[in-house]
Amino acid sequence: MIEPFTPEPIRWVAEDGTPVRPLPERFTPELLRDLHRVMVQAREFDKKLINLLRMGRTTFYAQSSGMEATQVGLARSIRVGHDWVWPYYRDQALGLAMGVPLFEMISQCLGTNTDTCRGRQMPHHFASRRYNFVSISSSIASQVPPAAGSAMAQKYLGTDEITVCTFGDGATSEGDWHAGLNMAGAAKAPALFICENNQWAISTSIREQTASETIHIKAKAYGMPGFYVDGNDIVAVMEVCAHAAEWVRAGNGPALVECLTYRVGSHSNADADAEKQYRSREEVEAWVARDPITRIEGLLAHLGHPVTAEERAALISETHRQIDEDVQRALDSGEPDWRIIFEDVYADMPTHLRDQEAFLRAEQTGGQG
Ligand SMILES: Cc1ncc(C[n+]2csc(CCOP(=O)(O)OP(=O)(O)O)c2C)c(N)n1
Ligand SMILES: [Mg+2]
């Protein structure tokens, strides 16, 4: 039985990989291996994208390293392509686990012709129409009120879809967050709110962020259950998120899940983490020791299906090979033409934009027309 408002995060697997309660049957070695594969891919995606950033191929990237169990576990707890997902900017492991192709994510980061947004979004803000993965907004918590609206629409249309909305701990201090949760609660709309509590909002710690003991208790104020889960334990994340998702889908109204995890890398490429300005190395090292990938490997070993060093190395090199190939293919597609800034908004372009387009064309052709 999964209860809301537990004083401690719900946990299934201890840090050394030993189950602390009976493992549900669905967690077969095959499923665990598949989850492990996506988590490793996401970790390697971070490393490769940081390299591309250093090479000047892209200009923004925010790592999800350390948070893979939360994001992959969430992806595997919802109906992918059916439910609607309003993500935030650190959700690449969520996207990958939902099935968004690496190639699409890489193209978006590079802003090439193969980018579905064709360079018109900030890098690392991918979207996927096929997977109902809504375009990311960098303005903290700005996705929460529209997600509440999306859930209200689902309720009024009588579908069995739900809306999933993710955000960080810092987002819970924004007015938008409270407005969105209040609206979804009052409308009893099918929204699943997921807080990826990585305990830092750039350099602001969770203790400075709020006087509340936890994030999930804020759910009480909005008339919904708040679940508290160990976000580095993928079994616990999947059990809790699947339970909350089905509770929401059954028409009971929204729910909030707080996944307690940690960002082991820097906030983004614009961060003083490396300079050790706001958190101690001891703190980071303590969380590196609770790594979610190590934990699932410990569980597989406990079950008698260990991931060997060779298998892990092969998985990593295959991921790197795939990413290198996709990067090349994206770069080969070239940069979008400047004219696209005038496309995809108006069926009939207003006069002032037509004038601007003509002006730019003249500039491009050196005043020759
Ligand atoms: C409205 C708004 N205010 C400030 C910022 C600058 N900013 C970018 S990320 C961030 C921290 C967010 O922390 P959290 O919600 O915990 O997510 P995390 O980055 O830790 O995953 C801030 C303050 C912003 N993007 N939008
Ligand atoms: Mg945070």
TrEMBL record:
Domain called Dehydrogenase E1 component: residue spans: 37-336
Reaction(s) catalysed by this chain's protein: N(6)-[(R)-lipoyl]-L-lysyl-[protein] + 3-methyl-2-oxobutanoate + H(+) = N(6)-[(R)-S(8)-2-methylpropanoyldihydrolipoyl]-L-lysyl-[protein] + CO2
An MF annotation (GO) of this entry: branched-chain 2-oxo acid dehydrogenase activity
Keyword Transmembrane helix found: no
Keywords per UniProt: Oxidoreductase, Thiamine pyrophosphate
Cofactor field: thiamine diphosphate
EC number: 1.2.4.4
Domain of life according to the entry: Bacteria
Gene Ontology biological process terms, A to Z: branched-chain amino acid catabolic process
UniProt record similarity statement: Belongs to the BCKDHA family.
PANTHER family on file: 2-OXOISOVALERATE DEHYDROGENASE SUBUNIT ALPHA, MITOCHONDRIAL
Functional description taken from the UniProt entry: The branched-chain alpha-keto dehydrogenase complex catalyzes the overall conversion of alpha-keto acids to acyl-CoA and CO(2). It contains multiple copies of three enzymatic components: branched-chain alpha-keto acid decarboxylase (E1), lipoamide acyltransferase (E2) and lipoamide dehydrogenase (E3).
Protein name per Swiss-Prot or TrEMBL: 2-oxoisovalerate dehydrogenase subunit alpha
Source organism of the structure: Deinococcus ficus
